From TrEMBL:
It comes from the Eukaryota. The keyword Flavoprotein applies. The keyword Cell inner membrane does not apply. It comes from Paraconiothyrium brasiliense. Residues 37-327 form the FAD/NAD(P)-binding domain. Keywords: Flavoprotein, Oxidoreductase. InterPro entries: FAD/NAD-bd_sf (IPR036188), FAD/NAD-binding_dom (IPR023753), Ferredoxin-NADP_redctase_2 (IPR050097). PANTHER family: THIOREDOXIN REDUCTASE 1-RELATED-RELATED. This is FAD/NAD(P)-binding domain-containing protein. Residues 1-30 are annotated as: Disordered. Belongs to the class-II pyridine nucleotide-disulfide oxidoreductase family.
Length: 349
């Protein structure tokens, strides 16, 4: 999330390791290997790297094209990930890339793919803005999503440090806060999701204010839902005009339209998100729930044969562990389909 790239991230340009060609490269003519990779992975985040970690176990050639645009780039810590609690996601990516060294079948390039097309002979061709191109027999799209912040001054500056989109991923470190806020806007602009966030916030703070940002009807509906509940929750229907940092690591100052302000230990809010880039539109991919890309379980096959999807763009359940799971699944599916086609057989799916 955000636009900050940790210092531990690799430089924008890096020499790719030498690629060891796999069996399919020599299928048509053993003396003249083609330049077509078995699998192209577009996206070098958690799901893309997890896909590659699966594919290499079947000795296929893999090309990872990494734009270095990561949804969690501004976050210094990962949570809910066994063995990697409270550690930097940039370090996780570096460790994952290091694991490929012993296989010799992975090529990694830092470039941004602008276009992908599928030829008549079922080969995918990816092209960058600089005009460089690559071809592959299968593609795993793992470019992710990007968060769309509401037009409130100071929102972006408080993102991650004072505004948390998931209180499992962020929040425990603020345990004991006197009060916190829930921003009932966008996907949270309804009674059930607002109270869902508020109940989680009460595990970390002593009281919660639900801000409906000028939506008086929603405020009334939430107050009705709170009747008979002893939960230390209240509703504020005033419109938020500015968010400000309180001068410490976390917390956020909420300024409302009447000129008043309040300091909250943190603000819980899940902003809207959208698919990153336009590759899904170029390829004519069907959309699924909440703007994700539709795919068939368990391997993430899209409506375009040979193109698989993984990570945040493939599921509304957008967590690190789900990115690992969908990446692993797509990384299994692409080779299985390719292997069946190599021998003119029917794949398992």
């Amino acid at each position: 999330m955000g636009s900050i790239t940790p210092a531990t991230e690799p430089p924008a340009v890096q020499t790719s390791p030498k690629r060891r060609l796999s069996q399919t490269d020599f299928l048509e003519d053993e003396k003249s290997p083609t330049s077509t990779y078995d699998v192209l992975i577009v996206g070098g985040g958690i799901s893309g790297l997890s896909a590659a970690a699966t594919i290499v176990r079947q000795d296929h050639s893999v090309l990872i094209l990494d734009s270095q645009k990561y949804r969690n780039a501004g976050s210094p810590h990962m949570h809910t990930v066994a063995t990697w609690d409270h550690r930097n996601p940039a370090d996780w990516r570096a460790a994952a890339r290091k694991d490929f060294d012993r296989y010799g079948t992975v090529t990694l390039e830092y470039d941004n793919v602008d276009k992908i097309s599928k030829t008549d002979n079922d080969i995918f061709v990816a092209t960058s803005a600089s005009g460089k191109s690559w071809s592959a027999k299968k593609v795993i799209l793992a470019t992710g999503v990007e968060d769309v912040f509401p037009a409130i001054p100071g929102y972006a500056e408080n993102w991650i440090t004072g505004i948390f989109h998931c209180l499992y991923c962020h929040g425990w470190e603020e345990k004991g806060a006197e009060s916190s806020g829930v921003f009932a806007e966008g996907e949270a602009a309804a009674v059930l999701p607002a109270l869902h966030f508020a109940r989680q916030a009460l595990r970390i703070s002593k009281s919660v204010t639900i801000y409906t940002h000028g939506n008086t009807q929603l405020a009334e509906d939430i107050e009705t839902a709170l009747n008979g509940s002893s939960a230390p929750m209240k509703v504020d229907s005033r419109k938020i005009v500015k968010l400000e940092k309180p001068g410490k690591r976390s917390g956020v100052i909420i300024h409302t339209e009447d000129g008043s302000s309040k300091v909250e230990g943190f603000l819980a809010h899940k902003p809207k998100s959208r698919l990153r880039g336009s590759l899904h539109e170029q390829l004519g991919l069907d959309l699924g729930p909440k703007g994700t890309i539709a795919s068939k379980p368990p391997f993430g096959q899209s409506n375009v044969k040979g193109l698989f999807v993984a990570g945040d763009m493939s599921t509304p359940m957008q967590t690190v562990t789900m990115a690992q799971a969908t990446g692993t699944s797509a990384g299994a599916g692409a080779p299985l389909q390719l292997q069946a086609e190599m021998w003119n057989q029917t794949p398992i799916f």
